[in-house]
Design a protein that fits this description.
10 strands; Rossmann fold; alpha/beta; two-stranded antiparallel sheet; 8-stranded mixed sheet
Amino acid sequence: MEENLPYAKRLGKQGNYELSFEPKSIWNYKRNNLIEDICDTVYKEEQLSKGKDDWIKAGTGGYLSGWNKEYHKRIVEFWSAENDTVLDPFAGHSSSFVPFLLKRNFIGFEITDKRFKIQQDHLVKLKEQFERTNNIELINDSSEYMDKYIEDDSVDCVITDPPFWNLEKYEEPVNGTQLSDLSDKSKFDAMFQTIIQKSINKLKPGGFIAVKIANFRRKGEYLNLKDEWVHFIQEMGVDLVDEIVLELSPVKRHPLYNQAITNLNCLKVNEFLIVFRKKNDKESNILVNNSINYARPLVSDIYDDEERLFWSETRNKIDWITEGLKKEMEDKVQKESTSDDANLLF
């Protein structure tokens, strides 16, 4: 491969590039994918105090919420490159897993001891299974204080799934105020906007910030948070570049089914991903695009023919990221098996 060949010419010369998904405006929920299985042991092992019956009545408030890992994989893959640094100001209990697996560096803030420890412990298990050299930095502190830890203009991408106002209740924070504890929406908005502005300050010019958000009802009032957030984030030195509809998983939809019928409200089946880009000149943005795109594999880098293109007419294929992770897991098992056999000889 000619390393100095411009990416556009590489495409013209070698054909299509390979992504693990079709880049369209609506992302359909995908169940039982490998990356979800690898990451989500934590959901099976750790729950909050509410039992199943309470959860059915109240929604996901009784369980630890988090990213759909397939969506998270697509976001990390599309708006960053290997060895880039991804920042999550609301890291929760699992946000580092996908960047780790996709060979990105990661900085995440988690304000509670329990969720911080859950993520640390599970990362240890992932590191035993997958060899990675990328740096994962988990900070047990409020992202209000990120200026103590991160220089401005130093991270390549911000990806976050922030807590919703007055919806989720967790244990006590180690420092600062937990956003989801704020019952006063004006106080929530002020603190959230401060954290998002600080995150944008840490972002390199031309870098992307992707924020997941959903509209919901609170005490009978419909809250259009997506439009609210788009409005105020655009005032922070970034441009809105994308708005993607994310299909909600059945697990999140089903508990609200009876409420929807009783109150004559349509059942919400989607969330949103709003994507912004830190202001930069056009020429510099092209260089940022090239740095991300150059890291993407072309079909010819992976396969012998373009029929293997993941989102082509051929269906039911395993995407290239999943294939890579499967091979790593199989190689690990084979290596351990060979090592055990060798030990039996002595």
